[in-house]
Amino acid sequence: MTARTEPVAGSVMSYVYAVGRAGTPLEAALTGLPGLEGTPLRAVRAGDLVAVVSSVPSASYGTEGVKARMEDLDRLEVMARTHHAVVEAAYEHATVLPMRLVTVYLDDGRVREMLNEREPEFSPLLARLEGHVELGVKVYADPREAVAVGSRDAAETTAAGPGRAYLQRRRAHQQNHRETYRAAGVVASEVPARVAEIARAHVTHRPQQGDLAQAAGENIVNDAYLVRATQADAFRAALTGLADGVPGVRVDITGPWAPYSFATPPAPGGGEPR
Questions:
Q1: For the segment 46-80, what is each residue's pLDDT rounded down to a tens digit?
Q2: First vs last Cα of the chain: how many Å apart?
Q3: 12-21 and 96-98: which strand pairing?
Q4: Which of 115, 128, 160, 226 could be bridged to 201 by S-S, CB 3.0 to 4.6 A?
């Protein structure tokens, strides 16, 4: 976020969620729907571009207010969810460029200046993304599942005594742990080739960890693919069964989403408040 001057106490600022083309259904579809703080969304137009905007209190979204929000995880989650929901709603009606979280300007006039200044950047991006969606591919390794499978197999194929069975389980645990990650790597390496004729672009993200990794197992691959909306089903079909018969390895396909990984423009001037 950036500001050329500080907002006046008690005033409101313009929060920008996304940018699209003027003259699309976007301008009318979202007008009046709630954004952050429950204030209605509106369209701010400049030339051939339009921004999806809502008013937010400067006390909460100025420099100090945003700093406090970033330190409050509950408030930050609400803000992020609302921002994302508005972008997704916008993308249902038109191709848009999702803006970064907390993209705030002093007023609508500054938003129009931004649209005019960045039109040479935004217009080619919008043209490139027209008719496309983002699909996520996550590969998980879960050695516990592989160990369970190996233990069941061992129990079914041997009639060993307790001591020998214990050693077999330990060896199976160690071997399955190594094999699970090795197998997950092999599965992940096959993804790009399977979707090469379908995906238009590919971005590698950091694997999700901690609270972000809600699924079972360890996320070892967290990639995003840009795909024509009409080929989303073909993309999924190309990856169907990729991890079948590989204990402890799972492939999850998420989306379709608005193409965050391919559309979010870099913050101007290094990302200060405007």
A1: 999 999 999 999 988 887 877 887 888 888 899 99
A2: 7
A3: antiparallel
A4: 226
